[in-house]
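Budget justification aside, the reviewers requested a transparent look at the raw inputs and outputs of the sequence design task funded under Objective 1. We therefore reproduce one unedited record. The lines immediately below are the structure tokens for a 237-residue chain.
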């Protein structure tokens, strides 16, 4: 019998992978999930079939990159196509040292995330309603990293991210107090599923980033969660 979707199970899997969540962080995550599910009755933020699996399918999936990637503190991260707040809100809760901007082009979704972020008081989040191309006109070169989850093709993500990333190049890992992740912080971190060979080839032909690396999300506890085909794609621009 598989592990039952619950905050306790997610906290245990995170702890098993070196990420210890405090009671305060778990309370904030639970508050976020509760508010998200209430809003989901009115606005389609996550699939209805995922409502009973939100902790595994969305919260844990958003936090799992921390098991692999050393994200320095005090950097600016853009969550591109944030939707209902994934992965940005869980990352902001667990890593309050990060500055997150949640970007979505659909105003009703940013209305929801604005309400949730205000209610649970997350000072390290800013919310923007715009397309990535529009944001680049005012905020080009302002972000150290872009994160994206199930938003678009990899080629589009790379194309949209390039003008938003600081020109200084790859971020140098520093002391964060979270001793996780053997992979250095990339310019673009995309959570993707399925066979990515075609998408990666398209990027190399059309966009030509410096480096692309894929990391299978096989971690202690993942075998029961249906994440077998999920991957992190780390792109240096």
């Amino acid at each position: 019998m598989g592990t039952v979707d619950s905050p306790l199970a997610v906290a245990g899997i995170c702890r098993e992978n070196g990420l210890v969540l405090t009671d305060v962080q778990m309370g904030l995550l639970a508050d976020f999930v509760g508010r998200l599910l209430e809003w989901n009755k009115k606005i389609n933020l996550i699939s209805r079939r995922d409502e009973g699996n939100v902790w595994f399918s969305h919260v844990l999936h958003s936090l799992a990159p921390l098991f692999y990637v050393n994200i320095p503190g005090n950097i600016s991260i853009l969550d591109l196509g944030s939707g209902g707040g994934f992965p940005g809100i869980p990352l902001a809760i667990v890593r309050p040292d990060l500055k997150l901007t949640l970007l979505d082009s659909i105003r009703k979704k940013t209305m929801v995330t604005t309400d949730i972020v205000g209610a649970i008081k997350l000072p390290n989040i800013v919310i923007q309603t715009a397309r990535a191309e529009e944001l680049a006109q005012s905020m080009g070169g302002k972000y150290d990293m872009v994160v994206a989850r199930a938003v678009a093709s990899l080629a589009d993500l790379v194309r949209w991210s390039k003008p938003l990333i600081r020109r200084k190049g790859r971020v140098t890992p520093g002391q964060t107090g979270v001793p996780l992740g053997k992979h250095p912080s990339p310019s673009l971190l995309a959570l993707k599923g399925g066979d990515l060979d075609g998408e990666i080839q398209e990027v190399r032909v059309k966009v030509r980033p410096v480096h692309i690396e894929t990391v299978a999300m096989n971690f202690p506890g993942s075998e029961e969660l249906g994440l077998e085909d999920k991957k992190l794609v780390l792109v240096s621009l």
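Confidence is low (pLDDT under 50) at residues 169-177. The longest strand covers residues 230-236. Computational costs for records of this kind are itemized in the attached budget.
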